[in-house]
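Kindly go through the following sequence and its backbone structure tokens. Advise at your convenience whether the structure tokens fit the sequence:

___
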Amino acid sequence: MAPAAAPGWFKVKVDTVGGCSLTDSIYVSATAIHPDLGFKKTLCANTATTLNSNISGAGYTFTWEYTSSGIYANLAVLSGQVSSTLTNVRSSGLYKVTATKAGCTTEWDTVSVISPLASPQDACYLGAGNGPVTLSVTGTNLGPPAQYDWYQTNGTTLAQTGGYLIQRLH
């Protein structure tokens, strides 16, 4: 056994009694590589984000995993995603990246991507027929400090409180 005094490739050659030679090599890095996806990312309507492992250099391969549930046990490999960055991320959920070099897996990192916008099914009205109704927006993705405005179909902001006439179209 010999100590590695500096990072780099190390080769070993073994000569057997029978006259055969066997060789192998290994790469030793100076420090462990730690992917860093940063803090939570927020998606706004019709936008995408890029996740960056912040690892550079030759010889690395990357595995990206995703789950919409936010539960580690539900992570699934994103097929074909093998670069240090994951581009065009449009779905909220938990993302994980693992980097590998020379067969050695480095540490991994995760990041949550959230979309705090109310989806159309979150908007509802309570009322009967064509009478006054109360407009509200609910949903698990709103989170404080969510702010929203109601608009009429012509783009006019509803600035007054009280009832508005809503007609069923179906």
Observations:
- Residues 51 and 86 are 5 Å apart (CA to CA).
- The chain has two domains: 31-114, 116-170.
- Residues 31-114 form a domain with the Immunoglobulin-like fold (CATH 2.60.40.10).
- The two ends are 79 Å apart (CA to CA).
